[in-house]
Write a structure and sequence with these properties.
This protein has about 290 residues and is of the alpha/beta class. It has eleven helices and eight strands. The protein has helices spanning about 15-25, 50-55, 65-75, 95-105, 135-145, 160-185, 195-210, 210-220, 230-250, 255-270, 280-285; strands at about 5-10, 30-35, 45, 60, 85, 110-115, 130-135, 150-155. An eight-stranded mixed beta sheet has the order 3-2-1-4-5-6-7-8, with helices on both faces. Strand 5 (about 85), helix 4 and strand 6 (about 110-115) form a beta-alpha-beta unit. The structure holds NADP nicotinamide-adenine-dinucleotide phosphate. NADP nicotinamide-adenine-dinucleotide phosphate binds near residues 11, 13, 15 and 90.
Length: about 290
């Protein structure tokens, strides 16, 4: 039987702990380090310093709060040469590219990653992760990475995994905040959130099934006139009712207001007969 790779995990927050536990469950010899003393998963070797933890394994998984903490921790480690760092800390594409350069200068390889799971999902079906950057690092350590969830290598540009991750999170936050607003609205009449929850779930599933794929097709073709069933002008005419109703019910409309501006601009530009998906053209032009 092939010997299992030594793995180091920097960061024992909720996610770092889940990653270390998944490795240990698959019998990977695992060294862990955390800034402040914390109980480590059973079977892990606890390093006293980040430098000691990095020295223990060629493969180092990093899962800290943010990019600043990653730079601080790596700055405290003198020797990184020959190491493969897999950074699963949430960050931006540019932060990943900058980190890849910094590590290349220190003769280390970066595989940057994005985790599409919450800690209890790690190692369970449904968890998936994006990776980008060093292809050879991905190929070499794929069996280890597959321990966490389904691995998707998305390209040699180190920023791509973060871009995929942030794209999905952006969609998620829009959806979560929309749901939160819906609960505030129904709550204004004293209806408990749990009464609305199954209906909201049913509605969101019905609206996203088909919609996401159809929107993607229109965007890729740049044609927002395909199969229009709910034209934008009609939607823009109804939308102010969402804001008015919130105000009438004493609920803040601050989540809704920016969307109306986009709908109105797109209609004013002459696209009222098209699909909602065309709003993407306004987003693509922002800042240009
Ligand atoms: N939890 C999730 O649902 C989830 C899902 C996907 C991705 N992520 C990402 O995974 C990463 C870790 O999340 P988490 O849930 O594990 O967060 P967490 O429970 O808040 O843990 C944060 C970790 O970062 C460490 N840290 C913070 N600042 C530091 C610094 N300046 N120097 C050294 N260590 C520092 C903390 O050490 P101390 O214990 O010493 O404070 C702790 O180990 C984040 O980037 C997060 O966005 C999380």
């Amino acid at each position: 039987m092939a010997e299992k790779s030594q793995v180091t995990v920097l960061g024992l927050g909720a996610m770092g702990t889940a990653l270390a536990e998944a490795l240990l469950a698959q019998n990977y010899p695992t060294t862990v380090w955390n800034r402040s003393p914390k109980s480590a998963p059973a079977g892990a070797v606890v390093a006293a310093t980040a430098a000691e933890a990095v020295a223990a394994s060629r493969l180092v998984i990093i899962c800290l709060l943010d990019d600043k903490s990653v730079l601080e921790v790596l700055g405290s480690v003198d020797e990184l040469a020959g190491r493969v760092l897999v950074n699963l800390t949430n960050g931006t594409p540019q932060q990943a590219r900058d980190l890849a350069e910094l590590l290349a200068d220190r003769d280390a390889d970066l595989l940057d990653g994005g985790i599409m799971a919450v800690p209890p999902m790690i190692g369970q079906p449904g968890a998936f992760l994006f990776y980008s950057g060093s292809r050879s690092a991905f190929d070499t350590y794929r069996p280890v990475l597959d321990t966490f969830g389904e691995s998707h290598y998305v390209g040699t540009d180190p920023g791509l995994a973060a871009l995929y991750d942030i794209s999905l999170l952006s969609g998620m936050y829009g959806m979560f905040m929309g749901a939160t607003h819906a609960f505030a609205m129904i709550g204004s009449a004293g209806v408990p959130a749990k009464a609305l929850a199954p209906l909201l779930t049913q509605w969101v599933i019905a609206m996203t099934t088909g919609f996401i794929g159809a929107t993607a097709e229109q965007i890729d073709q740049g044609d927002y006139t395909l199969n229009v069933v709910s034209n934008l002008a009609m939607q823009a005419a109804a939308y102010p009712n969402l804001i008015r109703a919130a105000e009438e019910q004493g609920v803040s409309a601050e989540l809704l207001v920016p969307l109306q501006r986009l709908l109105d601009r797109r209609v004013a530009d002459g696209h009222g007969h098209e699909n909602l998906a065309g709003v993407v053209e306004l987003l693509k032009k922002a800042g240009k």
